[in-house]
Amino acid sequence: MSCAFPREAEARRLSARIVRRHAAARDDRAGAVLQAEYPSGGRADDGRSTPPCRSRSCCCCAKLQREFGMSVIFVTHDIGVAVEISDRLAVMYAGQIVESGALRDVVRAPAHPYTRGLLASTGHGARKGERLETIPRAPPVLDTRPVACAFAPRCAFAEPRCTAAPPPVVNIGADRTVRCVLAESRETTVG
Description:
It is built from six helices and six strands, in the order ααβαβαββααββ. By secondary structure, the protein is of the alpha+beta class.
């Protein structure tokens, strides 16, 4: 599949947001950052999201990254896409980053229960014929800012302190953080 710079015909198939961000990034190439919002949301002519459209969107962003030496921030709800295209991963829940670090570290040893649930709910590491896991209960309503851990009502490992105060941001390695009381036993001094 070709990753040619998007022309008018291709632009209709790519997310309009990606095209707009691309145009903005070209204006200042030195130190530019391309923010691709929902690259997994590529649309076919009939409006459906399809793997070839997602692939084309991601491929074009990767080409821009290589050509112009720019950083690319992919914002997506599809952790499978993030795993395929990222060097670093930041997992958000209820508007807060709950885990971040090098992709390899986060995927091989997820430290936050939400990250574990996301990875278990995809085909990542699944055996053929096995049922994928789900994260129980519904996400929180965010009309007010949570006063404690927003994931606690859905977490199988929640402790009383999880519902009493916001979770700490814990450094568990070089350039790796987790927002969870469970990570406190893994805390390291980074320096």
